[in-house]
Amino acid sequence: MTKARLLRLSVVLVSIFMILLIIVYWDNVGTAHFYLHTSFSRPRSPGAIPGITAGEDWEALPDVDEFLAKLLSASLRQNNSIPRKTEQLLVQGSNKPVVSNLEENVRGYDWSTHKDRNSLDQEKLQVERQRTLREFCANSSFTFPTKERSFDDIPNYELNHLIVDDRHGIIYCYVPKVACTNWKRVMIVLSESLLDQGVPYRNPLDIPREHVHNTSTHLTFNKFWRRYGKFSRHLMKIKLKKYTKFLFVRDPFVRLISAFRSKFELENEEFYRRFAIPMLKLYSNHTNLPTSVSEAFGAGLKVSFSDFIQYLLDPRTEKMTPFNEHWRQVYRLCHPCQIDYDFIGKLETLDEDAAYLLQLLKVDRLLRFPPSYRNRTASSWEDNWFAKIPLAWRQQLYKLYEADFVLFGYPKPENLLKD
Fold first, then answer.
1. Which family, according to UniProt (predicted)?
2. Mind listing the pLDDT tens digit for each residue in 135-167?
């Protein structure tokens, strides 16, 4: 009897030791630094932002989650502020970022002063956006693929768009063609995940684009399994409870136009070989195509917008490989019915939304969001771009992206869906 008790006690002690070892490792990589100073961070204060649902902090967590949470809460008491030296370092940046990258210069940034919306208007916008999202996620009559699955059902590889900043307790789901380059830059500055000559970047626009989109630069949810093994889902759930989660969205059809312009109207070797060559063969009946994009452009061989739409609607496309992230639906990238986002920004109101979000996160003293550029694809262009697309195709395309229209409150483009 005594041996059995000693055996059970040994198993318990070994289990606790292993968990503590994981927590120590976690702290070493920065994950234990929960900074619960943001306006959205849970548990909610009495003055929480209107429209953000207050929830019980650790309710219904499994035993392992609860044990980890208690250990992490103890760590919080020792790590409840960012070092002052780091804050001062970041603040020293100029109020007007220096545009050093050639591509950024070509695009032409808009440095004009934008009139900030009243904070009350911003609060109302968030209330409306979140109410719309939650209502349709809960509406059983509105269905779309993957809607009914739980967070645990989402494969790790589908969580690669969730970027984590443990220094400030922020999770950002990036959506390509929705200012994601600059939001990634902001996340790099805040998390100090990238150094320039041994010093963290202070100015988002100083970070070269090739580093911004390097997957090794960011800590994302899909990397958790390699670090934490079987505890990865437990830790994800704790972060989803405690951290501020945000994403930015855009009119789905305008996002498609923007993706087409940047990937097929400009010389892009990768997208030419992976996507343009198959499209030109399948939908334009071209053979013996050049192997390089420069040769193809020189010969006048370019994918048309019609080719691109056919590719999206072709049932063989998804069977061969999932949609590329630049035209994949937002509900597939960010799982808005499985993740309770605290802030929903829109590209159409980017300047106001970004300024308001940084203020709510209490990081506006550290940096400014890079200004938007002037040649942003306009919603008014939809009629011209879709003028030569058959009505039946437009209707099928809407069904393909309907969930993004509905969940994020974009009106149905009736003028494109009727004769």
1. Belongs to the sulfotransferase 2 family.
2. 999 999 999 999 999 999 999 999 999 999 999
